[in-house]
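User: Modeling request: complex.
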Amino acid sequence: MNPATHSGRARRIGGLIRKETLQILRDPSAMVIAGILPLLLLFLFGYGVSLDLRQVALCLVVEQPNAETGSLAASFANSRYFTLESGRDRRQCDADLVAGRLKGVVVVAADFAARASRGDAAPIQVIVDGSDPNTAGLVQNYIQGVFGNWLRQQQIASAAPAPAQVSLVPRLWYNPSIESRNFLLPGLVVVIMALIGTLLTALVVAREWERGTMEALMSTPIGIAELLIGKLVPYFVLGMAAMAISVATAVFVFAVPYRGSVAALLLVSSVFLASMLALGLLISTLARNQFVASQIALIGAFLPAFLLSGLIFEISSMPLPIRLLTNLLPARYFVPAMQTLFLVGDVGAVLVPSTLSMAAIAAVLFAATARNTRTRLD
Amino acid sequence: MWQRIAHLIRKELLAVWRDRKSRMVLIGPPLLQLVVFSFAITQEVRNLDIAVLNQDLGVDSRELVARFAASPYFRTVGALRGMAEIGPALDSRDVIAVVQIGSDFSRSLAAGNAAPVQILLDGRRSNAAQIVQGYALTIVDSFNADLSERHGHKPPARSLVARAWFNPNLESLWSTVPSLMVILTMLVGVIVTALSVARERELGTFEQLLVSPLRPIEILIGKTVPALIIGLGEGTAILLAAVLAFRVPFTGSLPLLYAGMVLYLAAVIGVGLFISSLVATQQQAVLGAFTFMAPAMLLSGFATPVENMPDWLQMLTLGDPARFFLVIVKGIFLKDMPASEVAQSLWPMLLIAVATLSGATWFFRRRLQ
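Assistant: Request completed. Predicted assembly structure:
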């Protein structure tokens, strides 16, 4: 290669990069999606989206109060998980359960004390709202927990000989205080980068196709590789900047620990961003229409990054075809990688396979884009 | 006047329908999303791998390990050989939990003392980890019950009997599919409206509309009604799929559901129009739509319950139409919610719809003058 063509190439790419950068800086919507939306999402997730139940509205119906049911009611009232409402008649509580004002109803039947003192089975009825299965399961567990504690206290008070028991001592590694933001915020960075990498790129390039300026670019001496590089570099920088802002906000505002190295963060996130940019380019070349491109980008990048990446819903619990499908999604590798970097550190066993998988996906997507761009022009 | 509007509506519907790609985007992806996300969005926890480190040599510990191995909740239950293996097993995400039984486990039990068993969980997946902890607790509880029976203790008389109303087996699908109706109709309603005006602006045909005899309010109606029709069509398709394909029970009143859907769509279309009155290009319209939809989705209670949010954020959710439609959809599908309760969520949506539509009209007029 002689120096003249080399400098020509550098100049061409440089010119493209400058043009794209100016376009980003002049269009406020690009800055909104790269700056404001990530912060909005981070703050919503950091403050609002929480899987930790608080103040579960519970109705305790005691049909015939006495000393024993009084101590049970006190146990529920003292639990920090519940806001308790008590009544004698369960019909009002049932209606509130239908309305969604209550998450659960606990009914102590009139003959509870009599049956218990006789040694007969004395069940306490618990009804939870199954229309939200996850919360229902957690509420059941919490009620079971309060009841179990109460039972143990009663046993100690009655001084009956307690049988030898196995006790389970749980310890949550990496996130001992069970803050859901500690694992949601690292995952949210993934969603934000997917959004910038794919949606923004897909829209920008689709517009060029729509307006015919892409053909104009193609008729210049610029090569396909140069064109792709020139288009992508500014969005790559924008994506990495959004990543840096998000990570900094997570660490400094929300006090999520970061235990990995900066080098690993940069490496893994650039590979992920490259795969997202490649996806955005591919979508825009296939769609060539901003409406279609935006819809495909939402479906192909944003929603999977949110729902199929293991961020909120466990991948291992999904049915087999969907589990296989997730293997094709870069976000599915990046979410555990980010959570590991934040909460554990540089764990090669997680980071190396994730990075390689994302790099492979990115390579396939770039190859497909280059092929498509070329054939489309013929 | 009505005829002019009818023509405009027809033109709008044709514009979406004639373009093969737009047509496919309106039909294919929502159905695909419905299927994929319905099955993917499950908060049940299955097929997880755990490991056991048993340092005890007695019979009791072996029986406890056998119970873990026999549990249907875990896919594999591996055995670790030493404390040094615990860290790498959890760090690499090979297992979500390690159950560790100390060397004096059997001795403590035989002596009538409490015998602790440690369970170490992967906090990167706190939610799943807590559910695994619940499963482990169930296994230990049943082990304890059998143990005390063997030692001649009577089972305790007082017990809890839990039942879930509306969804006895706590099927995730029953809650997810109706929720997706809320999300997907919002997606369609906002995007179709926001983009249709922006596209005309970008192509320059919007000026042609303005010089036509149509008044601004007529143009607005002409943009609102097609989006409403498309949104209702989308919602109906999801409703049919939910009942016929996913077998989600439908217990409530169909007219009430549609009343909710119309108000909900009106509210989100108002937002779409509002966005389109602010933007100049389709790109800005999509990004603007997105800036509204992402928080609206998060605050609706779809992914995590509204009650878990701090109070100031709960106040903010009162402006989110998706929050109210979610209550209606779930209530009508699963709970046979009475009309009086549905109305409690209908009127806030009505207020929001009036606010967004009149706000959009005002902005539109101002931009046109």
